[in-house]
Structures are given as C-alpha cells and as structure tokens.
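Notes for week 9. Today we move from apo structures to complexes. The key idea is that a small molecule is not decoration. When we ask for a structure prediction with adenosine-5'-diphosphate present, the ligand SMILES becomes part of the input, just like the chain. The input block below holds both the sequence and the ligand string. Read it once before you look at the output, and try to guess where the molecule might sit.
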Amino acid sequence: MTSLKPSVDLSIDHLKNITTWISNIYDLNQLLELILETGTRIMRAKASSLLLLDQKTKKLYFKVATGTKKDEVKNFAVKLGQGIAGHVAETGQPLLIEDVSRDKRWYRGISDQIGFKTRSILCVPMKVEDNVIGVIEFINKSDGESFQQNELELLTVFADLAALAILNARKFQFAERDNTVLKQDLDLKHQIIGNSKVIKQVIADAMKVADSTASTLILGESGTGKELLARLIHAASSRKNRHMVAINCSAMTESLLESELFGHEKGAFTGAGEQKIGKLELADESTLFLDEIGEMSQGMQAKLLRALQDGVFYRVGGNMPIAVDIRIIAATNRDVAEQVRTGKFREDLYYRLNVVELRMPPLRDHKEDIPLLARYFADLFKTEKASCPIEVPEATLEKMMTYDWPGNIRELRNAIERAVVMGNGRQVLPEDLSFIILDCVPPQISFGKTLKEALEDFKRQFIEVNLKNTMGNQTRAAQIMGIQRTYLSRLITQYGITKTP
Ligand SMILES: Nc1ncnc2c1ncn2[C@@H]1O[C@H](COP(=O)(O)OP(=O)(O)O)[C@@H](O)[C@H]1O
Ligand SMILES: [Mg+2]
C-alpha cells in the first residue's frame, strides 16, 4: 500500500481549519468555499467542484469550484445518475477513476464544453445519516499522478464532516430567517396606532425614558395599550435584543406568583418536581414587565421590594443568591397612589417602581384615533381569502364615534375582529357592530298609558337591548339581568320579541 505522505497533504493546520468551519461558520457560501479549498489543498488537486443536490429537481448544482475553469463550470447542473458526480450522488458510494476516458460512466460533455482536460477523478458523496446532500469531486493531481485508494478513504471522512457543517449552517440560516420573520411580525403586532396629541405625547415620553434604566410605572384603564407601551419602551431600549419577559401579577395565588417570579428548586414544595427558572432570572439583562401590579399581595410586595433593592434573590427552596440586572416596567389600572394612602400598597415599593410615570389615556379621550384604529384592525384581521383591504365606511365610523368604549382599544379590536369574521368580507358595516353598540335609547314615556303599560314597554325594550348585546344568547342575557332563563323565555313569548339580534 502506498503511504499517505507523498500524495496527500494533511497537516495539523488543515485539521484546525476543518474544526473551525465546523463549529463557527454559519454563512453557507463562505463555508462551501472553505470546504473545497481545504479539500483541494489536502488532495493537491488541479481542479475541484462541490455540488449540492436539490431534492426537488433531483439535480446536482455546482456551488463552488476551483481551477482554471471554475467560473464556466458553475453554469452546469447534473442529473442524478448522470456522469460520475451524478452516479456517486445516486449510489452514495465514492468513486476513484484513474482514467476517465476508459470509464463509461464519465459524462464528457462538461469537460469538452469548457475545454478542460480531465484525466483522473476522485469523487465522494457528502452524507448525513445516509442521505446524500451533495458530492465533492477532485480532478487531476497537480503532480500528474493518479489519486490513490487511501486518499479516497480519507476524503470520505472529510466529506462527512463537510456534510455536517453544511447541515448546521443550513439550520442556522433557517433559524435566522425564522427569527427575522418573527421579529418583524412582533414589531407589526406591537405598533401603537394613533395620531392624536395625547398618544403622540405618551410615545414621545416613552422614547425619552427608553434608554434610561429608570423603573417605569404605566397607569391607565384596562385595554388602553399599557402592555403595548411597555413593549415599545423595551424595543427602543438598549436591551431590545433580548426578549421582554412579562408576568401578570393578578392571575395567581401568592405562592404560585412567588415561584413564577423567583423560580424554585427541585422539591422546594409538594409538586415542585423539577427546578424552575423564574421570570426574574429569565429577564436578566432584559426588561421585566410586571402587569397588574396593583393586585399584588402585601407579602409579595415585600419580597419583590427586597429583590429589587438588593439586586439579588433566591429561588424558592434555594440558598444560592442570584444576581440579576433587570429593567422594571410595571402597569396597573388601579389608582396605586390611592392604594398607598389607604395602606394597600407599600409606599417604598411604589416609589421604587414609579421613578417615571406614564399614563395611557382611555379611548374616549382620543376618539379621533378611532378611524385609524378601526382600519388598522380591519386590515389586521382580514381573512386570508380577502384579496383587497376591508373597508370601514363612514357610517360605521360614525357609529363607533358615538360609543364610549369602556373596554378601550381592546374592546374596539375585538369588535372589529368579530365584525370581520361575521361580515361580508369586503366591508365592516354598522350592523356588524350591533352587538357592541348599546343602543340605550330611553323608553318612550307617553302620556295616557297606565303605569302597568309603561312598565311593560320598558321591560320589552330592556330585554331587547340585552338580547342584542349578548347576540341573542338567552342564558347570558338572563344572567346579566339577574332573572331565570325560563322566565326570560316566557317574557320573550309574551312580548313577541324576535329572538335573532
Ligand atoms: N394604540 C394602539 N394601537 C394598536 N393596538 C392597540 C393600541 N392600544 C391597544 N392595542 C391593542 O389592544 C389590546 C389591549 O392592549 P394592552 O396593551 O394589552 O392593554 P392593557 O395592558 O392596557 O390592558 C392589545 O391587543 C393591543 O395590541
Ligand atoms: Mg394588560
């Protein structure tokens, strides 16, 4: 057997090179070039090409090449099974051919067209778990010798490493692409829509505080966009490359909230089967959004304050101090200042959270934004089959402007979403919004009726309004009115009320 030395040039440097690209190079094109360059140097080949198999077309495409005709060769594609490269890709077996002119598998078309005199070829498949993703081929040794069997074995290992690196780079590319798409998606979803003076002012203030680490307290009614504002502040801050971590402080018991915030060690309490990383830890070097902070119990307030003051906390059941660097944004729809006065909210925590205070206005205070919001949501909820934007005609907008929107923008958003789903797919009509617009016309009080008759009139209208606002759901309407469902159904028959809203 010939020794490796004279024909192959595999040095420590080459190995180091290979290790580097396997672990560090995520740019696919750059990686392919490096693979081929390294391989060619090891093989001392005159020319070489790397071809990748496209699963859809079942063709091999030249991705990179070396040698005098490297640019010409890139214009070619080889069918699976065609020529030596196609044969190797199809069988998954490497091939060493000392004299191609005597091998019938050789497809001379390419060599002839580009005018390259091919004599010997060494071609290996790049495989990942038995799947061929491409081939590498080396043509003619620079010293005029033939390729050797032992070189083929070495190259097979090399090709498998290359295949792994390619797969990693591809995965990374996909992940990166997904990430960009997701981020764009998120940015879109977190746009604060509004042109009114009040909204512009809040956004301007938010931008001012974004780059400080000052704790910010966002006040405002439910559904006004407090969380959206928090996301905007985070996205405009230097921490934007980390995810903002959010937790709703009202949705759980004190002990659950504690382990959600601080995490817990395995076996810290019954049911703590696994160690859990808390939100404070997850938000390290990022922003923690504490939603509905006004609902936090006094006990939790004390624990949170301690963690914020010390910048250090312990997992429940743990004794290892954990230090974090967190920017806090808290929000509440409560009047916390009042809660502080009545002793329901700790004053020290309040001052800690309320370094900057921002206030989201209720929608009724910036009704001029309703048209913009309505059109924005109509477009957002446009179904896939709707090819053109869904219109929100003037009449619908007028109706929306007369309503007070106690649930603020969240209510408006839900209303449009339902209207788009239930509507004609082209427009949001005023009647599509009937279920949210309370037409609370006072009953006609006309002279000449008995009290009994007037009361009947009132009852009928009252029932109608309730049915309308519950989309004809009698159980729900009865609940709201505080009467039995069976009684409601009797009244409906008695007054001859039509059941569909
Ligand atoms: N100005 C706005 N532009 C677009 N969407 C908004 C706006 N304000 C609120 N929303 C949407 O309304 C819903 C409620 O907002 P959110 O931030 O959760 O309110 P809050 O935290 O004050 O209850 C969310 O779906 C949010 O995306
Ligand atoms: Mg909220």
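The mean pLDDT is 87.
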